[in-house]
Amino acid sequence: MEKINNVTDFVFWGLSQNPEIEEVCFVVFSFFYTVILLGNLLIILTVYVGHLFKSPMYLFLNYLSFVDICYSSVTAPKMIVDLLAKSKIISYMGCMLQLFGGYFFGCTEIFILTVMAYDHYVAICKPLHYMTIMDWDRCNKMLLGCWIGGFTHSIIQVALVVQLPFCGPNEIDHYFCNVHLVLKLACTDTYVVGVVVTANSDTITLGSSVILLISYTVILVSLRKQSAEGMCKALSTCGSHFAMVINFFGPCTFMYMHPDNTFSEDKMVAVFYTIITPMLNPLIYTLRNAKVKNAMKKLWSRRVLWEANAKQK
């Protein structure tokens, strides 16, 4: 059967239809997105200037910050602009790119968080073999696997949607292209596609959650054998990562582990994992990690010294 596609663009309903609320949201989310960019760029710069990327944990953190910037940038700029726009329109191609980018960077972030949990497991449970197991070559292979896994996942999801015909209507009750809402607009039966899309996302989320749960269970059991000082240090390191996992996996689980329908809370939950979580991640690692804080202090000292020398000249 030949694909018929009369839809060239989609119309978002946005976060709210109240202009006053939208103006407030514009200011708030503009601030949030600025914090996301500055906070994560600061982490990347700190890791690079402080040569912390030689440690696997900070190498992964560096890429996580980069993915956070990309992930929030898939939806946040468009949403912020639309808050002051009379018509919130996105082209068909733009919608498909949003779907691809959201799945790509979202799935990649899940894989990086899982790899970071494995890194913590090796550091705490096998400290004598840590440098052998987590060598530079293996770390790069794991990161490459994260990117390939994210790309494969997103290609499958988008390929399932692209082959569907869209004849109208074209209105989406959201602020970005949510795959389940897009499927509802297709002028054909999308039950099988919906099941495959949901199963694909659920497999990634559930599988990664199980690996994270096993990793932290083993870590907690092994901590009983360590000294009080070693236990506090390990808990401090794992605490930051665990907080990031909860911030990201909690909303994602709500969005993708429920049946193929929508809830009124979906928009607020989506705001949390697309904007709030990328904004909080740099704060969590900065406030709880002494090494990152010291590297930032050195970076700030260099800037102050550079400005002082510039004024003298």
From TrEMBL:
What's its job?
Answer: Putative odorant or sperm cell receptor.
Family per similarity comment: Belongs to the G-protein coupled receptor 1 family.
The protein's superkingdom reads Eukaryota
**MF terms per GO, please?**
G protein-coupled receptor activity; olfactory receptor activity
Where it sits in the cell: the answer is:
Cell membrane
Against Gene3D superfamilies, the record matches this protein to: Rhodopsin 7-helix transmembrane proteins
Q: What is this protein called?
A: Olfactory receptor 4S2-like
- Taxonomic lineage: Eukaryota, Metazoa, Chordata, Craniata, Vertebrata
- Which GO CC terms are listed, alphabetically? plasma membrane
